[in-house]
Amino acid sequence: MRPPRSAAIGAGFAILLAFFLSSMTLGQQAAAPQPPRLRGTVKDPSGAVMASVDIVVIQGTNVKATKTNDLGVFAFDVPAGQYELAVTAPDFKVFRQTVRVTQNMAPLSLTLSLEGLTTAVEVVGNTNQVVVDAAQSLDATTLTSDQIADLPDDDDDLLAYLQSLAGGDGNAQLIIDGFENGRLPRRDQIAQIVIEPNSFNATGTGPRITIVSKTPGPTAWNGGASLQYRDSALNARTPHADNKPKTQRSVFSTNYGGPLIKGKLSMNIDVEKQQSDNGGSAIRAFTPGGPINETVYSPSTYDSVSISNNWYFSQNHTMYTRLEYDRSKSLNQGPGGFTLQERASDSSDHSWYAQFSDNKTLSPKMTNNFQASVNWGGSRTTPRTNAIAINVLDSFFAGGAQNLSVSRNSSFNISDTFRWTPSPKWNWQFNMRVNHQSNYNLAENNFLGTFTFSSLEDYLAGNALTFTQSSGNPVADTKQTDGNVSFNATYRISPNMSYSFGAQYAIQTHLKDYNNISPTTQFQVQLKKRHTISVGARLSYPNVAFQLSNWEQLIRGDGTTRQFNTVISEPTYPDPFAGGVTGTTTGVGNSLQLRDSHFVAPYTINTQLSLNEALPKNWRITTTFNMNRSVHQMRNRNINAPYPGTALDPSLSRDEIDLLRPYFPIVGRINRYESVGNTFQRNLTFTVQVPSKKVLKTQISGTFQTGFTWQDDDSAWENPYNVRADWARNDQRFRFQSSFSIRPPKVGSFNINFNTNTGRAYTITTGVDDNGDQSFSDRPLGVKRNSLRGPGQYTVNMNWNSPPLNVRKKKKKPVDAPTGAAGAPAAPAALSAQDQLIQAALAAGVNPANIQQLIASLSSQPGFIGGTPSTPTEPPSLLHPRITFRVNVQNLLNNTRVNGYSGVITSPVFGKPTGWGAGRSIQLSLNSSF
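Request: output the structure for the sequence above.
Response:
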């Protein structure tokens, strides 16, 4: 330690030196003002300074780059104005921030987050603090613009690839700009994609995909058009079909959008037209006249138009509106499998859809998102033949379709999400949702009646099993309202450890069950930056436990004022009412629909353990094991079957059997909705994410996923008085799927999807009603449910996208362009703003891998490409007119895929396939953007 005297002398000398230097500085400033200085310090999540970190500042096409020194400090001498600041470092997320440089501005303090964490900027006064977003899952995968550029071009392929990254069975919750299951934006309009494979948010249902579009919208008008065409001449014949009818399908879609008020209001128009002469369904039936194998011709049309607007009132307030109209018409629908052409029907429908979203940043710590949507429309179905229906089990279904219906429906939904981050460690989210539905339906289903026969021999002999017929008032006018409220809290214990918890409460009309609280919790820890362990559990009730369609069926079949479903066992054929047999309005001979007075909402208990390994070179492996136990599942059981519901003595007469029914003299079915079902499922899934990399100049990226499922349930039963006796396996045990994008140089890109799975179980049945319960699920003695299993199958699909053909406007050669004596060419045309930015960034020493990401980010901000922030700019080169060609091949190898097997002993195809998947089909597409 210095002596006190030496310290005093040193301090005095420092003061004199500082006074002398400040005097010189003032003199220099009087002569020539010095530029402001942008300076700051970069730290990691633990607070340690980070040396040799790349720092970039950009304004227009001007780029400056530097690195932090050993103390983590950086500095730029730049003119006052607005800049884009970017910080990059290996194993850390790229940090980007817009800063306004002024004289004497305070130093910045920037904290980078590890891969898997996100950052947010919290502005307090004149300082900028970077905080960790506590709501983000530690094992989340964030795809930024440069990674998005390597994803599949087609929307369907892109969505399938994202679902595979999320894991599960393609059921990840999709949130687009705040809306669940919104419309996927064009790839070049996507700013960021966040994939959370283990989301235990109170409002979620499992994996979640969040897509954020670029804001504040396009800086110039641009659009695109697409034409898809499919013809049977390019396709293979459906296996075992005798013919391949001429079929065609064409889809034309176009979109055009741009700014109405630059930086404030944008508009987008989407139009789509589909025309399909479909021959995909095939009939494979066995009739008294012989087998029928033919393909069904079913034409259809679909039209859609939508207009959407994005309003950018400020950086803290945006609004989105959308109006859409759809209409469709489908002819000759229904035939296929055992169903003959005479059971066909025609249908048409139309709908209007309006959507509204308001996003408001109330403060640096609070945001609110309010959404509302309205949907209304109507539909009509008309049978082509009005006649009594004939069903011969697993042989043929003939007669009339009897499905005349006219519907008008509407729905209204509002929701609000409030998010509060009081500190970098806490995140709170509160959500409210209310939904109202109304439905008017006139349905004359089965008003002429249906005969059911066990076999072809019984049909030829006129020995019917049952005759069923509906009658009464065909109109049902129903309404339903449901809603839920929830909260979710996440506490970031440390940058690599978090704990979240929450709960949701759901309520609805038509169900007096008011204790449906769904708690959820999750703990995550990140070890050594690469290993993330996630443990979660939830008990979840559905938002709507008793659907409006079930309520409609309940009031239709109450047996008093609505419809009556007459059921006659062993009727005379062709007149079921011969000999005085009648169906009356008193309930005798009728089938009723009831609901158990103790009916409650079903719930599912889900526990999950996941290990996410972030390997070197951006490989990622995720292993997930979860268990799902579903309790109080809805079952519709016949409570008027002859007790005890087992096979009856063949010597009993029909009258003696009816005396065994608990509600005699009612001899028909009394179906009752009951919450008695159970399901137990275990899933083990391995997902390997292959990073985008070049092999022999070919860009390759993709995923592998292998899954095992063990599921048992009581979803079907033989004896309605002993449902648990038919607890059995009901799963496809093994599945494997992969999705790859391959981009060789100069030949376009290939997207290949491979899927395979083991077969599904099916049950052997006798084809007759052995226990008199008026259903045909009876099995031979000693045979268990789902005792047989069909074969597995595999499918390979491939898409090829051609390299884009850019159509650039040719610049006219200046008249006074200088040329040499030998006609030397004129000076090359000026580079585009984007090309200038790329060259400037390279010259400044920016890592080439980060340049495209920076450009994509800046392209979404008016003015940063091509000039100062207040100067109108030209669109980036991605928006120049271009054309691409696409070939989509389904079932590339044209392998035979069995869809199901017959387990009915009386069927002529017992133990044989009942249907096949379509053969190879090819679709051609032409896409353009302008």
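The two ends are 72 Å apart (CA to CA).
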